[in-house]
Structure formats: structure tokens, C-alpha cells
Amino acid sequence: QVQLVESGGGLVQAGGSLRLSCAASGRTFSKRAMGWFRQAPGKEREFVAAIIWSGGTTDYADSVKGRFTISRDSAKNTGYLQMNSLKPEDTAVYYCAARDWNKDKYDYWGQGTQVTVSS
After folding, report:
1. Of 6, 45, 53, 54, which one's alpha carbon is 20 to 30 angstroms from that of 76?
2. Considering the chain, what is the average pLDDT of its residues?
3. Across the strands, what pairs with 83?
4. What CA–CA distances, in Å, run from 18 to 21, 29, 68, 115?
């Protein structure tokens, strides 16, 4: 079983930066991928970014390309989402999730961390 804990959320002014962390407990992530999702009030959950643990291949939603960077520290079993040039529309609860590298379904989810961007 994998447990995920997000941290690093908070309040930031538009144009500012924030880094989210996702600490994973359990087995190594060598055969897994970590993704970030977000959900704003009244909206559906949307994909933000993902990284395959081995090799570091990344994927981003068009809305965050060029502004967000996903990374990982394998030794710490921790993933990161660096968010720059934040916009008010980035305001949401951000969730990290884990899946097998060759699957689309995310089987494990964190509790979420709130990110609020003021205008």
C-alpha cells in the first residue's frame, strides 16, 4: 500500500511562485509514476502534470506548460510541483497521485493541499 502526503500549499499573489511536495511511503517508486491534479470549486478535477519515476519523462496540461515543473527525488520518495507565474485561475485544491508507469489509472491519492492565488 502507498500513502501520499501533500504539503506546500498556501496563499500567494498572482505572478508569484509556490512549490508543492508529495511524500510517498511504502515501496519504491521505480516502477510507478506520480501525477498532480487539481480541483477548483464547482469544477471537475483536472490533470496538471505527471512524471515517470524511472527516466523522468514528464507530461503537462496545456494550461500550465512553461509555468509549472514536475520533478522527483527518488532517494526521498518525494515528488515536487514547482509552480511559477501563478494566476488566479490556478486556485484549487491540488492532489498528488500514484500509478503504475504503464497504466492510466491512479490507484493512490493524497489528501490534497489548498493553493490560493490572489489577483
Report:
1. 45
2. 95
3. 18, 68
4. 10, 24, 10, 9
The tens digit of pLDDT for each residue in 18-51 reads 999 999 987 788 899 999 999 999 999 999 999 9
Q: What angle do CA 54, 57, 63 make, to 5 degrees?
A: 140
Positive/negative CA dihedral, 76, 73, 18, 3: negative
User: Distance from CA of residue 66 to its chain's centroid?
Assistant: 15
Grid coordinates representing 14 are: 498572482
74: phi then psi, degrees, rounded to nearest 5? -60, -35
* Joined grid coordinates for residue 26: 511504502
The answer on pLDDT for 61 being more than 80 is yes
Strands 113-118 and 10-13: parallel
* Alpha carbons 8 and 47: distance in angstroms, whole number: 19
Mean pLDDT of 88-96: 98
Q: What angle do CA 88, 4, 23 make, to 5 degrees?
A: 85
Report how far apart the first and last C-alpha atoms of the chain are (Å, whole number): 40
